[in-house]
Amino acid sequence: MDKLDDLVALSRRFGSDPEWVLAGGGNTSFKDGGSLYVKASGHSLGAIDRSGFCAIDRTKLDGIWTAGYPEDADAREAAVLADLLAARKSGELKRPSVETLMHGLFPQAYVVHTHPAAVNGITCGREGKAAFDRLFGDVGIWVPFVDPGYLLAKTVRAALEDFRSRTGAVPAIMLMQNHGLLVAGETPGEVEAASTRVMAKVLGEVRRLPDLAARAVDALEVADAAATLSRHGAALRFRSDGESLARAASRESFAPLTSAFSPDHIVYAGHEFLLVEDGASGIEDAWSGFVARNGTAPRIVLVRGLGAFSCAATLSAADAAILLYTDACKVAAYAESFGGPLHMTREKIEFIRNWEVEKYRSSVSGGE
Ligand SMILES: [Zn+2]
Predict the structure, then answer these.
(1) Phi then psi for 352, rounded to 5 degrees?
(2) Residue 356 has pLDDT above 90, yes or no
(3) Which of 87, 130, 155, 299 lies at a CB distance of 3.0 to 4.6 Å from 321, suitable for a disulfide?
(4) Region 239-255 average pLDDT
(5) What would the DSSP string read from start to end of 26-38?
(6) Domain 219-364 architecture
(7) Average confidence (pLDDT) over 41-51
(8) Do the domains at 3-203 and 219-364 have one common CATH topology?
């Protein structure tokens, strides 16, 4: 066993626990002298091995901070990606995670970045920043929502420098608005302990846990709804649980789910869920209205009295959609304890929908 094996074990531990990571999300890294080993695109943390990490030259990576980049977002991200690829150790062919720059900024040896629903109750809560200040302000940093990639890393860099100049220390944790958590430590044990503390503190503030227990509903009407939806997508998934039935019960209770919490949700479950208020027979009209409004088909259809369907071209896409929909339900429930839901802004949602989606999707699940 060497330290890269320790990184593999640490990655699998978090990657195989759905409370921390879903659908190939999250990434980890380890620094050893001049090298940074970071999760490569197309690998899932839960099943990763040594070959899933990309070796980066830290000196070249740091060189990105003194290089100049174009203002235009497309041109900038393309240039940064080229420099990121050029920073790989010789012979390294894998594509490093888009969040590599962010990993390189933390001086600690091990970095674990996850998207846990409970922590996202804070990062997606209207009073989340205040809760962060109270619970973690002395040991961590908070970053507002910024587009993934170079701009996010730049924002993290400024927050790190600010923390250092205020406290003389380096932060062990970072909460990222509408995104997730990062924990850094010199050993896997340190990362594990800090993560456990974060989760315990967050759960200590939570007044209502999401109710995801399965509920029995009218099987004939579920079959009716599925028959209608199967005209729109070859693959369907269905779940009925306390959270879905309560959210579908009225426009008001559905409100926390009417917009997107994080890029992951947009990428896998769509930027907006469709609520059908009048049972299986209302699906066609509601579907047409959604398509007319959005120019795209819904991935998630919530039918009052029944539950939630995901509808996609492939089973893996339908699985990922229902998984991330359930995550949104959890985040919405946890956010109740932190001032209520704070969605991404329209502008950021459109940014992810319009051009970042393909890049983001390929970066988090490329090759899968
Ligand atoms: Zn992330």
Answers:
(1) -65, -40
(2) no
(3) 299
(4) 96
(5) -EEEEEETTEEEE
(6) 3-Layer(aba) Sandwich (3.40)
(7) 90
(8) yes
